[in-house]
Design brief:
heterodimer; A: alpha+beta; elongated; B: alpha+beta; two-stranded antiparallel sheet
């Protein structure tokens, strides 16, 4: 209790009150105009952390949904292509059944051969279909037409040197590829130098897994495995660390792609393989391969043209296998699309919940703020009133 | 035996004393709004009596002293509190500016751009050959790097602001110490002859209060009335008519920020002896708080760059090369930037995990979003940044609460001081009436004595 009250004490008191009420009043005004309870980290430090966390999570969900859309479009196109392939294969089967019977003649088989050629072209064009710039059925080789018109024997492409390679000598590939499926060999130089001194590592699967470090032989001939070797001829610049050589080897057949699947992150720790490689669908290559569809179709064509009823009938089993396989993968696409729908639904729910949680922290309770605002207005008016009274109440008014 | 002359003399002294009292009152009234003014009070004292046998003779009245009303104990508390207040004020002020740097409530900052950076990688993994996606990633990465650089620069700028303020505070302090010495001299000069230099003392107290807002100090008054001021550790700042000026020197070991030194010992930094006050607060902001945030931001940028670069180097670009660095190597947030080669040709982004066209590596880099790369592998980049923002928020809140608290305490001290030493117009007006009545009565006394004199003189004429 202050017993001796001076003018300054009174004025300071009113002043202090005025500025306090004014600052609370302004704070409420800000809340009302931004409609936000939390306008800066100090308004609610922990809440701010959570709001930021929700914002990050929501952006992540947004991205997952975007990826889901991409994967779903890809799957839809794949599915519709496979359905067309299925229809064609059913036609081929009908054709083979009709022409494999003894009632068919050389003439009808010749006519059927012409229409089969047409059907083969259609299957090839479906198998070479693109989504955007990328081939649907090339595995991860999305930039090369997966199916050639004619089958080719096993072969090895010349090495492709990385554009940033330090080495400027020639690189050639040799040997006969004995692998059962198309492969990509990668040689990466680990420590630079001359042949016999430089070391390299070797990957048989395009760079997914790497062998142990070894010295580049003095001859410049690096055995890559599966009968393939790469021969380097020294140029003016020696091998440099980080130089990369890619050697592509192809098993016998029409296929130029590989057996890897395209994958995308569609949820937390959910990596979805959305691509179906041509290898598993249309070739007999590798571990995943089943029926070599194009070889089968070409054999059937040859049998038709050769008027070979037994030969035609021989293909019926393969045709059934191919139809079954296409059917299976069509169903797989459908299942994956469905699981994407479920994921997306879950993501949307999560997004909604996060929005609600963030809003609970961040957004103002308008009724409450307006009530507070009114109360502060009254307090402010009272303070002004008090200031006004203070000037008029003085001993001087009572002295002559 | 009292005579008329003696009474006349008493009346004269009463008139003079009351004029003096009214003079003091007028000084109080005039200074009703002067900050730091301590009210004065005239002390009336009887001059006593001369005893002459059974009858005492009154000798009258005098103003024996003009008292300056103050409380030494309250003064000490106000000075102590002012040091805390100075520190809190500068901290609250600067934390408010720091907060704006980290405020993402209505703008996109590091948090959002980081998400967009990861999203851009994810987009690229969905279409690894797409140059649109590659260019979008480069631009998202550039935005992220830029916001890191900007935030870092803003924090660095604040540190330099604090540094400049420090230098200017030291200059001010030197000026105040000079004036303190002058006042000491004057007060000693006035008081050696027995007076009270109350207005000078008021001024000196105000000066001391200003000084203690700047720096942590102790003080005591010497017997001759001069004030001696020390740093908290006992080192003298002002002693009687001498003061030791401070100076600032650049410290290359601390990024060329200033150290505070005594001018006569420029090689010994006394930063840690400042204690409180605005200068102490500036040191705390510049070196500990802002320095700490900056260090966290740098660590975040560094770990992010390392994690992305490490992963990027294990992938392959579109030209069959192994991946290089994605971010240019740097020291932290201040120089974070996308590698110039990548910025020049987005085909060099190593999106693929193999030499084929998969997006495996982009996906792996995108997954660093959830990787625990911070704080000894316990936090993701985003949660580390979020906890940094939370810390800033808590620090701002602490700073403003402390300031509020200190202000209230200082307000209470000052109100008590004002209650004691301040001028109350009610009181002064009452005093004025009282002194006026005394003056009037003494005047009347003169008239009566005058009449008595006349009567005495006319005795012979009648």
């Amino acid at each position: 209790m202050i017993t001796r009250v001076t003018e300054k004490i009174k004025f300071d008191l009113v002043n202090g009150n005025l500025s306090r009420v004014q600052s609370q009043y302004t704070e409420l005004m800000e809340k009302l105009s931004t409609q936000k309870e939390v306008n800066r980290p100090s308004d609610d430090p922990l809440g701010t952390g959570r709001i930021l966390d929700y914002r990050s999570s929501r952006k992540y969900i947004e991205q997952c949904n975007e990826n889901i859309d991409t994967a779903r479009s890809w799957l839809t196109v794949t599915e519709s292509n496979l359905t067309s392939v299925y229809d064609i294969l059913v036609q081929v089967k009908e054709l083979a059944l009709a022409q494999g019977s003894d009632t068919a003649s050389a003439q009808t088989r010749q006519i059927a051969a012409t229409s089969l050629e047409n059907l083969i072209d259609q299957v090839r064009s479906l198998a070479n279909a693109r989504f955007g710039d990328r081939y649907l059925f090339g595995g991860t080789r999305t930039d090369t037409e997966p199916f050639a018109e004619n089958a080719a024997p096993a072969r090895v492409d010349d090495p492709v040197a990385g554009t940033a390679n330090g080495f400027d000598g020639a690189a050639a590939a040799g040997g006969t590829y004995t692998g059962s499926a198309n492969g990509t060999f990668v040689v990466r130089i680990l420590s630079g130098g001359a042949f016999g001194a430089a070391t390299c590592e070797l990957s048989p699967d395009g760079g997914k897994t790497w062998g142990s470090e070894s010295t580049v032989p003095g001859t410049g001939v690096i055995p890559l495995g599966d009968g393939v070797e790469m021969t380097l001829t020294a140029g003016t610049a020696e091998l440099a660390a980080g130089d990369v050589f890619t050697v592509r080897a192809y098993a016998e057949g029409h296929y130029n792609g590989n057996g890897d699947a395209l994958a995308l992150e569609v949820g937390k720790d959910v990596i979805l393989e959305y691509g179906v490689s041509g290898e598993e669908l249309f070739t007999g290559q590798g571990a995943s391969g089943g029926t070599d569809v194009f070889a089968m179709l070409e054999d059937l064509l040859a049998a038709l043209e050769g008027d070979d009823a037994a030969g035609i009938r021989d293909q019926l089993g393969s045709i059934d296998d191919a139809i079954g396989s296409v059917n299976r993968y069509t169903a797989k696409c459908g299942t994956r699309s469905n699981s994407l729908d479920v994921l997306e639904k879950g993501n949307d729910d999560l997004d909604l919940r996060m929005t609600a949680l963030a809003s609970e922290i961040e957004d103002v309770d308008v009724t409450e703020v307006i009530t507070d605002f009114k109360m502060k207005e009254i307090a402010l008016q009272a303070s002004y009133e008090m200031a006004n009274r203070m000037g008029s109440l003085s001993i001087l008014n009572y002295l002559d | 035996m009292s005579d008329l002359n003696q009474i006349m003399n008493t009346a004269k002294q009463a008139i003079l004393s009351h004029v003096t009292a009214i003079n003091v009152t007028s000084g109080n009234i005039a200074n009703v709004n002067t900050p730091g003014y301590s009210r004065l009070r005239p002390v009336f004292g009887s001059r006593g009596v001369i005893g002459e046998g059974a009858v005492d003779v009154q000798l009258g009245v005098e103003i024996s002293a003009i008292e300056r009303i103050y409380d030494r104990y309250l003064e000490t508390q106000i000075i102590q509190q002012q040091q805390q207040l100075g520190e809190s004020q500068v901290r609250s002020d600067m934390m408010g500016q720091v907060e704006e740097i980290f405020n993402e409530s209505s703008v996109e900052g590091i948090n959002d751009l980081l998400s967009e950076f990861w999203n851009a990688w994810s987009d690229l993994s969905a279409n690894p050959d797409g140059f649109e996606e590659r260019d979008a990633l480069v631009s998202a990465s550039q935005s992220l790097s830029q916001v890191f650089r900007e935030r870092s620069q803003e924090l660095v700028d604040l540190r330099w602001d604090a540094n400049d303020a420090l230098a200017s505070d030291i200059r001010d302090l030197n000026g105040y110490m000079g004036r303190m010495v002058e006042l000491n001299d004057k007060i000693v000069e006035v008081e050696i002859s027995g007076g009270t230099a109350s207005d000078l003392r008021d001024k000196r107290f105000e000066l001391l209060k200003t000084m203690s807002g700047l720096i942590g100090l102790d003080y005591y008054e010497a017997s001759d009335g001069s004030l001696n001021v020390f740093l908290a550790n006992g080192r003298s700042l002002v002693e009687g008519s001498h003061f030791w000026a401070l100076d600032v020197v650049e410290n290359p070991a601390n990024g060329n920020f200033y150290d505070v030194v005594f001018q006569d010992a420029p090689e010994i930094a006394i930063n840690d002896q400042i204690g409180a006050g605005e200068i102490g607060g500036l040191f705390g902001m510049r070196d500990d708080l802002i320095g700490g945030y900056l260090e966290d931001l740098d660590t975040l940028a560094r770990n992010l760059v390392t994690a992305v670069n490490d992963r990027h180097q294990s992938g392959f670009d579109t030209y069959g090369n192994g991946g290089g660095v994605f971010f240019a190597s740097g020291t932290g947030a201040r120089d974070m930037a996308v590698d110039a080669r990548i910025a020049g040709d987005s085909g060099l982004i190593a999106a693929a995990a193999t030499v084929n066209g998969d997006g495996g590596n982009a996906q792996e880099i995108g997954a660093i979003r959830d990787a625990l790369i911070m704080k000894g592998n316990t936090l993701t980049a985003a949660s580390f940044y979020q906890s940094l923002v939370v810390r800033v928020g808590v620090d701002v809140r602490d700073a403003s609460r402390t300031l509020e608290h200190q202000t209230v305490i200082q307000g209470q001290y000052e109100t008590r001081m004002e209650s004691l030493a301040g001028v109350s117009l009610d009181e002064e007006m009452m005093n004025l009436i009282r002194f006026q009545m005394g003056y009037n009565a003494a005047g009347k006394l003169c008239g009566v004595v005058n009449e008595m004199m006349d009567a005495l003189i006319n005795i012979g004429n009648s």
